[in-house]
Predict the structure.
Amino acid sequence: CYHPHAFLTRPETFIWYQLGLEKLSHHEWILALSESAAAEALDVLEGHEQVIVTGCRSSIGTERPDGRPTWLPSGPYVLVVGNALPHKNLAVAVAGFVPVADTRPSGLQLVILAKISPQQQEALQQMSRGLGLEPHQLVFLSQITTGELACVHAEADALVVPSIHEGFSLS
């Protein structure tokens, strides 16, 4: 999920990164912080056998003991998938969540998976507080991988599609 290609989007940055990896071939020993870093070094440095993992497994800190990712809420949640466009009705989803949250245990959360601006996020947070929700009941996610999207959907207790119109909903 945090592979270098995800953040090395400009050609000059990627070339700088590749050159740095290739410089490693001049060293007898290479110490890597994770299994994934070691695998990447071995891909670039064909025939180099002395890559030692000194850190931790690549999944440290990404899962709870029950196997659920740490970036997901630990309890039950309702999922809304959308974006910043008005017809997606994210505010309607927040308002509609209030009566549901009132009838459920206090741990129920609304997870909004949408690429929205910080200003839009703040507006939804202010609206939710005005409607009586606790700050922890509204969770925002964005920029996740396809695999993470599948996990978010699978772990959700309910899915809400509040848009006015969908030609072909991918939710």
Q: What stands out?
A: The longest helix spans residues 90-103.
